[in-house]
Design brief:
heterodimer, A: about 120 residues, about 50% strand, B: about 110 residues, mainly beta, seven-stranded mixed β-sheet, four-stranded antiparallel β-sheet
């Protein structure tokens, strides 16, 4: 079974509008972390935001916020006031921790295109 | 500033060549990772090193040989590759300290096998 599911292969958003990128996850661990990365066409994976499974507040980093709904096992990324430079691939990832340090597992990604 | 560097950034090689990819992290991390990213495929974990010890080999063919001489350096030695090995190879590092342990990535090496 897929650990991370991103159901939107591609999304379009108007500049200055907000956009939500969906991510659902599957784990039986109680302790885990959720991450979002941005990958521009240059290829580098850029860390955006982190949410821990025990965090009660939704994480925010500047224009990025993570809408964490634990019971639904969803960790959607919200980008406010979209900019042209936000056009990129976005990956959701998870680290399970009950077994100790394990590498991140990534979803297939969503390609976001910001339109002027 | 990424803190993780990879060289070369681009590499073209024939199937009979031997080449190496290099990754260096300047973040004081203890874990390093190799990922492969092919077109239209999700990111595939290849190898994991924790404190210089290989802790994961994700069924990678033996034509890919990793080496981690210390916590700051990671190599991927390539030999007798196939055209389907053409991909973006990404290196990452992390502290290996908990569920919030963020992996930081290098810019990648774009490999083309002819």
């Amino acid at each position: 079974a897929q650990k991370i599911t991103q159901t939107q292969p591609g999304m379009f958003v108007q500049e200055k509008e907000a956009v939500t990128l969906d991510c659902t996850y599957d784990t039986s661990d109680q302790s885990y972390g959720l991450f979002w990365y941005k990958q521009p066409s240059s290829g580098e994976m850029i860390f955006l935001i982190y949410q821990g499974s025990y965090d009660e507040q939704n994480a925010t980093e500047g224009r990025y916020s993570l809408n964490f709904q634990k019971a639904r096992k969803s960790a959607n990324l919200v980008i406010s006031a979209s900019q042209l430079g936000d056009s990129a691939m976005y990956f959701c990832a998870m680290r399970e921790w009950n077994s100790g340090n394990t590498p991140l597992v990534f979803g297939k990604g969503t390609r976001l295109s910001v339109i002027a | 500033e990424t803190g993780v560097t990879q060289t070369p950034r681009h590499l073209v090689m024939g199937m009979t060549n031997k080449k190496s990819l290099k990754c260096e992290q300047h973040l004081g991390h203890n874990a390093m990772y190799w990922y492969k990213q092919s077109a239209k495929k999700p990111l595939e974990l290849m190898f994991v090193y924790n404190f210089k010890e290989q802790t994961e080999n994700n069924s990678v063919p033996s034509r890919f040989s990793p080496e981690c001489p210390n916590s700051s350096h990671l190599f991927l030695h390539l030999h007798t590759l196939q055209p389907e090995d053409s991909a973006l190879y990404l290196c990452a590092s992390s502290l290996a300290g908990g569920p919030g342990d963020t992996q930081y990535f290098g810019p990648g090496t774009r490999l083309t096998v002819l």
